[in-house]
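Example 3.
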Amino acid sequence: KNQVEQSPQSLIILEGKNCTLQCNYTVSPFSNLRWYKQDTGRGPVSLTIMTFSENTKSNGRYTATLDADTKQSSLHITASQLSDSASYICVVSARSGGYNKLIFGAGTRLAVHP
Amino acid sequence: ETGVTQTPRHLVMGMTNKKSLKCEQHLGHNAMYWYKQSAKKPLELMFVYSLEERVENNSVPSRFSPECPNSSHLFLHLHTLQPEDSALYLCASSQTAVERSYNEQFFGPGTRLTVL
């Protein structure tokens, strides 16, 4: 069964600190992995997309890594800001040979405190 | 803003009401999607439209009825809903519905639906 599991479920950090969010997946055949940021009351916004051959991708203070062998990904946030408070969703796309098949994780809720 | 708008942003309805959610994308995309997001649960895909044709219906109850009159607009018609249907309903669009590595989906802000 295709699944995406994220940890931790929630996280509180102080402003300026770094943090790392984890994503494990059992999706086959794998196409790509995406990280989305979702602010409260808004839709998800894409941060990074990585294919099988990419093992790291950065977007400003956000750096995503992918280990296709262990089927794990992480999202590292550097020098956190209050505006980083949001849910971070890991999404894996299955290669279906047809239409997009996205499998969503339940998200990690991050709170950055001053 | 992502280029995908949704109205209304909030909706409260009784179980016997009929209402519609509207989604519009200004990105020139050919595919549009409806998702349901319940608290602490992953997004659930409901429907996929490609060039105004429904290509996926994810076992959604018939009390949810989608409509795609053109590639820029998507509606979700609601009737005789249940309290467990209360959730955030998200619309998204992408260049194509066909699986491709960088076929990014752009989401609207969602409609927060409460069924009493």
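Chain A has a mean pLDDT of 93. The radius of gyration of chain A is 14 Å.
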